[in-house]
Write a structure and sequence with these properties.
It contains 14 helices and 17 strands. By secondary structure, the protein is α+β, with helices and mostly antiparallel strands. It folds into 3 domains: 168 residues, Arc Repressor Mutant, subunit A (Orthogonal Bundle), CATH 1.10.10; 74 residues, Arc Repressor Mutant, subunit A (Orthogonal Bundle); 96 residues, 3-Layer(aba) Sandwich (Aminopeptidase), CATH 3.40.630.30. The radius of gyration is 23 Å and the shape is globular.
């Protein structure tokens, strides 16, 4: 079994996430589609302190990215679709069939608990969409003659829309702003897309290979997390793939858990540190979403504090991890004041200020300027930093 150093493991992970490149790997609309295919999913999030997480993840990896590219890929080209990974996500349309097991499982589970009234609302919602085409929740507001106590109410209708989405009876066909429009699957999924129900073995193999393509390395626990697969079943499939040579087992020095990778990655182990380009990452970026893995490989203890009561926050409401070379070196709490067109950096925190080098301020200033533009801002206001020298150098650079 190959033993990797932590530095090698980090570089494999970063290379697989396309974050060690000097320039973004993909470009434009076609690049966005390839990015989703490579990563396997991009999480959707509603928090808008800065650009929403899905836009941020794409901007980090796709050159010339514009938010409207998502609409084109989803609504016009039908190259991506929305469903659940470990959370609400954009997924490659080519992977549609692998969303079917969860839909069937929820349909069987929830149907037994649905009341007669709820079934009636669902039938009403489906009948309207079948007859009228794609509709948003707004089209299901109570009619003018509605009275309290009637069987129909727009809130149950909204609930029905979401339930029907999760069970696969409806799909999200597009978004206008952030408003979801629902339609029948046969009007959303192109005829070219395979829709055969996968076997359990096919489902888990797909999960394993998708994760290793995007992450480079993964343990059984990390792979199970993404689809809530039983550990015993996951281990059985991993064992078979290892014996067939599809994957290889590795150990990482100092980590007491077996990892897996693709054999091709072991034949070309990265031997050099990444360039000095700094990346501001989303809290929901695919690189950082598994916090235990982040702690193991980068020694970075990360909690997104927007869900933490304000008095208990240590670093701020929406802290963004900072990737520099092959390490996560700190975090910044930012907010886009869009009306004033100012990106406010409320706090900048380096994990090890004493290790800051002369290139850091210039690299961070360059990334902050690009990030401000991405957020529709012209100016940057730096309020606080735990390194006085970096704070002064940044302010000089940002002028």
């Amino acid at each position: 079994m190959t033993e990797l150093t932590p530095a090698q493991a980090r570089m494999i992970f970063l290379d697989s996430q396309t974050l060690r490149l000097k320039h973004r790997r993909w470009k434009g609309h076609a690049g966005l589609v390839e990015c989703v295919k490579h990563l396997g999913y991009v999480q959707i999030d509603t928090i808008s302190a800065v650009q929403r997480a899905h836009h941020h993840v794409f901007w980090t990896r796709v050159g010339a990215y514009k938010p409207e590219m998502i609409d084109r890929a989803q609504a016009d080209k039908r190259q991506i679709f929305e469903y659940w990974s470990h959370a609400a996500s954009y997924l490659p349309m080519d992977d549609f069939r692998y969303s079917l097991p969860r839909k069937r499982r929820l349909h069987d589970k929830w149907r037994a608990g649905w009341s007669r009234e709820h079934m009636k609302v669902q039938s009403y919602v489906l009948d309207r969409i079948r007859a009228e085409g794609e509709l948003s929740a707004r089209e299901f507001e109570a009619p003018p003659d509605w009275k309290s106590g009637n069987w129909f109410d727009w809130k149950p209708a909204k609930s029905a829309l979401e339930n029907l989405f999760h069970t696969g009876d409806l799909m999200i066909s597009k978004r206008v702003g952030f408003q979801k429009y629902f339609d029948l699957p046969e009007r959303v999924v192109p005829s070219r897309i395979q829709s055969e129900f996968p076997t359990e073995n096919e489902q888990i193999r797909h999960l394993i290979l998708s994760m290793l393509r995007a992450h480079g390395l993964g343990s059984a626990a990390e792979m199970s997390y993404l689809r809530k697969v039983a550990r015993a079943t996951m281990n059985e499939v991993l064992c078979g793939m290892r014996e067939s040579g599809d994957i290889a087992a590795v150990c990482i020095h100092g980590i007491d858990e077996e990892y897996y990778t693709l054999p091709a990655l072991l034949s070309n182990l990265p031997a050099r540190p990444a360039h000095a380009r700094l990346r501001i990452l989303s809290p929901f970026d695919n690189l950082v979403i598994q916090r235990k893995k982040l702690q193991r490989l980068f020694n970075f203890d990360y909690t997104i504090e927007c869900y933490v009561p304000a008095p208990k926050r240590q670093f701020g409401y929406f802290c963004l991890p900072l990737l520099y070379r092959s390490n996560i070196i700190g975090r910044l709490d930012a907010k886009a004041a869009r009306a004033e067109r100012v990106l406010i950096v409320k706090s900048l925190w380096l994990e090890h200020p004493e290790r800051a080098d002369g290139l850091l301020a210039a690299s961070l200033a360059e990334e902050l300027r690009d990030f401000a533009t991405f957020n529709g801002c012209d100016d940057i206001k730096l309020e606080d930093c735990n390194d006085a020298n970096l704070k002064q150098a940044l302010r000089r650079s940002l002028k």
